[in-house]
Amino acid sequence: MALATEEDGRVIGFAQAISDGVLTAFIPLLEVQATYRGQGVGSALMRRLLAQLDHLYAVDLSCDDELVPFYGRLGFGQANLMFRRSYARQNGAPLLTV
Fold this sequence. Notes:
Blueprint: E1 2-5, E2 11-19, E3 24-32, H1 41-52, E4 58-61, H2 68-73
Parallel strand pairs: 3-4
Antiparallel strand pairs: 1-2, 2-3
């Protein structure tokens, strides 16, 4: 995990990876507060996280089309992605059964 904070300790952004520690990692989250976007915070977080993962064979993530150039500048290549979603579970609340 990589964390960006203000001088007063407030978190302004973070990046997170899930890894087996041996071969692969997946980056599910890069978040930067809106007022800090476009200032290099996300790039710095990703570089810090990627340095932690540098020993791995593969580091993967998925992103929206408009973010492809951002991740491309960080050395990621574009590939196909398959996914499955249960939109009824999107908020994480338990499903009610009657």
